[in-house]
From TrEMBL:
Residues 114-208 form the FecR protein domain. Gene3D superfamilies: 2.60.120.1440. The keyword Transferase applies. Keywords: Kinase, Transferase. Residues 16-56 form the FecR N-terminal domain. This is Histidine kinase. GO terms for molecular function: kinase activity; sigma factor antagonist activity.
C-alpha cells in the first residue's frame, strides 16, 4: 500500500511574500497595477501557487485574516506591529492546513481561561489561601475554590505550585487537574506540565498523590520529593529522579547539562514566537549552561559564540535555522 506523498516545506521567502499579499488584500482594494502584479506572482512558480492555496484555505477557515492579526494589517507598512503580524501570518501559512486548528484552539483556551500567559511570558499569582502559582510560557489555568476543595485546572502549559496550609474551618484538599488526571498536593512544591497528551509531574518538596482520569480502578500513585513521572489518562510512566533545575524557568533561566542541541531547541521554542529549527547534522551536539528565556535572541547569540553553530534568520527573525558553522 502506497503512503501519501508528503509535500516539501515551502521557502520562507515565498511564505513571507504570500503573507504580504494576503495582508494587503485584507486592508484595502488593490489598484489595477497591483492586482496585475499579484496575479503574475501567483502563477510565476509552483511554490507561489502552493503558498497562495494555503492563504486561500486560511481565508476560508477564518473568513479573512485571524482577528488577532487583522487590526495589525491596518498599521503603517513599516510599523513594528505590522511587521510582527506579517511574520506570524507567514508562520501560520507554513503550518497550514494542520496548524490553523491548533492555533484556533490555543486562542480559545487562552481567551476563556481565568489566568493566562502569552508566549515568552511568566506570571506569579498568590491565591486566596496563600498558595503561590507561577505560570510558565503559553499557559492557561482556571481557579475554582469552594467549601469542599481548592482546585486548579491546567488547560495548557506549565505551572510551578507552592501550596499553603488551608485556614478554612474544614481543611480542603488542594487539587490540580489536567485532561489526563487529578493530583492532590500533600503539603508540597511541584511542577505540572501538559504536553503531547501526557501530564509531566516533578515533585520538589513534599508529595503528590495522582489519580488517572480514565482508570478509576488503578490505585493512586504517590510521588515523593525528588521524584518525577508522566502519565496518560490510563497509565502511569516510571518514577525517576527529578532534576531540581526543572523549576529554573521560574527564575527566567533554561538550564542545560550536556543536553542534545535538538532537545535544547525544542525547549527554547516554547519561549519564542515563530519557527526555530535544528539541522539534523548538529542535533546531537551537547549543550551546557544557563540561558535566559526572556531574551531568546540573546540565547541564540550565546550558542553561536560558544558552539560551532550558525543561526540563519528568515522572515525578519521569525524563522531561524541552526546549522553547522
Amino acid at each position: 500500500m502506497l503512503g501519501l506523498r508528503k509535500e516539501p516545506p515551502l521557502d520562507p521567502q515565498v511564505l513571507e511574500e504570500a503573507a504580504e499579499w494576503l495582508m494587503r488584500l485584507s486592508e484595502r482594494e488593490l489598484s489595477e497595477q497591483e492586482r496585475a502584479e499579484w496575479e503574475r506572482w501567483k502563477v510565476s512558480s509552483p511554490e507561489h501557487d502552493r503558498a497562495w492555496s494555503r492563504a486561500q484555505l486560511l481565508q476560508s477557515k477564518f473568513g479573512g485574516l485571524p482577528p488577532s492579526l487583522a487590526m495589525s494589517a491596518l498599521d503603517r507598512p513599516n510599523s513594528p506591529e505590522r511587521r510582527a503580524a506579517l511574520g506570524k501570518l507567514a508562520i501560520l501559512l507554513a503550518l497550514m492546513p494542520a496548524g490553523w486548528g491548533s492555533w484556533k484552539l490555543a486562542q480559545s483556551q487562552q481567551c476563556s481561561a481565568d489566568y493566562r500567559t502569552d508566549v515568552g511570558q511568566r506570571r506569579e499569582l498568590t491565591l486566596a489561601d496563600g498558595s503561590q502559582i507561577t505560570l510558565n510560557t503559553a499557559t492557561a489555568i482556571d481557579v475554582m475554590f469552594d467549601d469542599r476543595q481548592r482546585l486548579i485546572h491546567l488547560r495548557e502549559g506549565e505551572i510551578l505550585v507552592q501550596t499553603a496550609v488551608d485556614t478554612a474551618p474544614l481543611p480542603r484538599p488542594f487539587l490540580i487537574s489536567t485532561r489526563q488526571g487529578r493530583m492532590q498536593a500533600l503539603g508540597t512544591r511541584f511542577t505540572v506540565r501538559e504536553v503531547n497528551s501526557r501530564t509531566h509531574l516533578a515533585v520538589l518538596d513534599g508529595a503528590v498523590s495522582v489519580r488517572l482520569a480514565e482508570s478509576r480502578q488503578t490505585p493512586p500513585l504517590i510521588v515523593n520529593a525528588g521524584q518525577r513521572t508522566d502519565f496518560s489518562s490510563q497509565t502511569f510512566g516510571d518514577l525517576t529522579p527529578t532534576d531540581r533545575t526543572l523549576g529554573a524557568w521560574a527564575q527566567g533561566m533554561l538550564m542545560a547539562d550536556k543536553m542534545r542541541l535538538a532537545d535544547f531547541v525544542a525547549e527554547l521554542t516554547r519561549y519564542r514566537r515563530g519557527f526555530l529549527r535544528c539541522d539534523p547534522a548538529i542535533a546531537d551536539l551537547r549543550i551546557s549552561g544557563a540561558f535566559p528565556i526572556s531574551d531568546t535572541d540573546r540565547t541564540l547569540s550565546m550558542l553561536v559564540h560558544t558552539y560551532p553553530v550558525l543561526a540563519n534568520r528568515h522572515l525578519r527573525g521569525y524563522w531561524v535555522t541552526l546549522s553547522p558553522a
